[in-house]
Amino acid sequence: MTVTDEPTANPGYKQVGTRPIRPDGLDKVTGKARFGADLVLPGMLEGAVLRSPHPHATIVAIDTSAAEAMPGVHAVITGADFPDLAANGARPDDVLMSKNVMARDKVLYEGHPVAAVAAATRKQAKAAAAAIDVTYELLPHVLTVEQAMADDAPILHEGMRTRGLDPAPEVDSNIASRITHERGDLDQGFADADLVVERSFTTKPVHQGYIEPHAAVADASQDGRANLWCSSQGHFSMRTSTAKVLGWEPTRIKVTPAEIGGGFGGKTVIYLEPLATLLSLRSGRPVRLVMDRDEVFRASGPASGTSLRVKVGVTEDGQLTAADVWMAFEAGANPGSPVGAAGMTVLAPYDIPNFFVEGFDVVVNKPRVAAYRAPGAPMAAFAVESVLDELAAGIGIDPVELRLRNAVTEGSQAAYGPKFPVIGFVETLEAIRDHPHYQTELGPNQGRGVAAGFWFNAGMNSTATVNVNEDGNLTVVVGSPDIGGSRSSMCLMAAEELGIDVGRVNAIVADTETVGFNDVTGGSRVTLATGAAVVDACRQIKDDLRGRAAKTWDVEVDVVEWVDGQAQHVDGSETPLTLGELAAKWGRTGGPISATAALNARGVGPAFSTQVCDVEVDPETGEVTVLRYTTAQDAGTAIHPSYVEGQMQGGVVQGIGWALNEEYIYSDDGHLENPGFLDYRVPVASDLPMIDTVVVEVPNPAHPYGVRGVGEVGIVPPLAAVGNAIAAATGVRLTDLPMSPPRVLDAINRAAGDGGD
Amino acid sequence: MARTHVTCTINGDETEFLCEQDETLLNALRDDVGLTGVKEGCGTGDCGACSVLLNNRLTCACLVFAPEADGATIVTVEGLASAEALHPVQQTFLEGAALQCGVCTPGFLVAAKALLDHNPDPTETEVRYALAGNLCRCTGYDKIVRAVLDAAADMRSDGALTAD
Amino acid sequence: MATVHFPSSLRDLTGGVADVEVDASTVRRLIAALDERYPGMGERLAEGVSVSINGEILPDALYEDIPDGAEIHFLPTLSGG
Predict the structure, then answer these.
(1) Which residues of A touch C46 (CB under 8 A)?
(2) Quick check: is A735 in a domain?
(3) A7 pLDDT exceeds 80?
């Protein structure tokens, strides 16, 4: 059975909560939409990147002379062609970003770029890249947090000392930083518990797995300016970062956003953009750089591999008394894993009086991690939500009930510090508890698991312009790349504000010179923040329109109100003026009608999700089949319910892949052994059931339409929900991801062996 | 190296192009013919973003050499709609929000057409297996599967579908 | 008067003190006051720290007003996916 519950949108809304066809939809079903690799410019060259075959080595010399002499080659660049940001006083993070884009003295992971070529054809560019002669001096490498944290570990970054230790350390380390959170008295908390469960967990690096590889086209001109087209989650931040790496002022670059073929956090960072720009500058021709899939796996994105230990105590009546959490996150080659967010989210759903959380950000010889949907939270939740499942079973209460007894509500002091504003966690728990799914009977070898998750969501900077056209229809101009239907949400909020049908509103994503600054599409922020800018601009337009109607009628503006898309005199003495009528006469009332709003968004509303999963485990093979899945998530308000459901379903399925199949497999010598979709197996349609959604709506009081943000929290619970279901089906607790058939079978066999002997 | 002259029918039009011997049909369609609706997600036949109908068979264009297309009939996403109307599955994808980023959508639409051309009344399971060669990372497949089932129902009620 | 809560990562500078009352009308003045009381705090708070004022997390809060009786938390700046 599949049920898609209709959200209970505020009945006062006429547009918000409906499901119009998205503005960019037609182009996307007819093949017209232009993604990153689809642009062709006259005279365009094709590029290729030479990447390190070694996980850790010193670059002794690079000889590009043979490559430069090859047919069709127009430009070859190496690290020597980029400015030395450290010498220019740049921030350490920017120096590392620059060296990640193109290695200088050292390579830190297999796939680290060491040179790039532009040639007439891609084949020529690849042949020339292969002809570049790099002399390496190999260095010992580390691939796991355990190896990297060992006292005698080879050091990736000379001079790196662990931050967050008191006293400050005197020796170099691969531990970039240590974070802690604490409250109460841990020993007393565990002493108060009737049951304590402690477990260790590991998760492997996983990739965001967007279907569109990274792509960039650059066209630099003789005046030192450049046009850049790329697929990203934020073309303004691509501009900022590219300019930093090149040592340019940002406004020398104009970035035009291509349609983006998936990001999930992985397209918030630069890889190809500065290379394409510099190759174009050197060759005097436009240059297109596109990653092959194996480059995407080897050199972009992954989420951290992690190691966690969690110990939680509970009383026999289900009160959590204490939690002790230790976690180490792989950052990849440069510091900056999401262990900070993991530390803040790991206990956030629960009111626990005593806890200690300790986390380590650890560099290893793997690609630098990038954000992946609620970065850091899924791995942390996997550990804690698994332990809660054991605690509930141990004291004999329902796992949803255990969570309800400890759930945070408005005013609870979050484990990461401040008090929660209005939140809908309890509502998501109740939605799952009361869902028909939760009551259905299970068969042999089947099990049911529940888990919950939290994510902050984000606000940040957005700008939007709303233009009234001469026919009275609206164009909304935003600078937030649309990765999941956000243009439609912008149209709905604009239509609601102005009281017109959503079909009269179009939304576009404009380039860096057509609209004001916008931060990245990330942190589930666009509907909230860019939406707030759109609403603000529409309210300016409404005021403007009222003034124009007052002028038309020769009355004071305060007797004019805006109702259902038209100006009305409060006493009904004038024939109402529609938006179209006012637009048609704008020349005599002050000229064209347009408004812009720019803001640093306030009023972020946190998100919670609770999910239930049924699995069947084949005891002969260890294969896990997801039979049924239901997710309840607090959206605040679902502006376009279909795309809210889509975010929820997509997050769940990525989480299922993370739980069951996905992992980076490295050989001991530091090479990624599965850099393709055949061996890095993401879920396919035949692996899955329908993903039932319950859109919970506890409006965010700080947003004009109650929006919270829906993109991320859905991926937080699935790892544990699936693991808990497997435990229920088999009686065996798996603590290492992915729970692939060999691991599940091994665990079943070991448990049977233990029982039998 | 001399380039190879290929003549084929693409989306109903007789089309000629020159290609390298070892060039993939995917590259030829995108770079030589200009049909960039055919997407490259992997280049190894694992993601289905480059799905086309090659002589009526669902095919990853990245796994076929372009010269092999000589004399063939090819349908890409650009050939699904008429001037007047979208293909029913294009319409149900739009109405059912069966796309988020949209980069996998062309491949899914071609794969769905391939299914519905042969099976006018597929079960959910049949749809899921027919689309198992196409990866989508955004939707979790739920709305895609529903859209294909809805298109099948629409086509049956319009009498547009008959079994082979 | 505002109540400032220090995360454990800042308590090496406060000698273990977790909460303190500070009279400051803006975040900038608050940080200056804290730096005076706990030398080095200003520098530490300049490195990617968000400020929560009465539960609202603000990533770029230097000039924010602090209402009387506010609860202030310093948090690491986060990135989303």
Answers:
(1) none
(2) no
(3) no
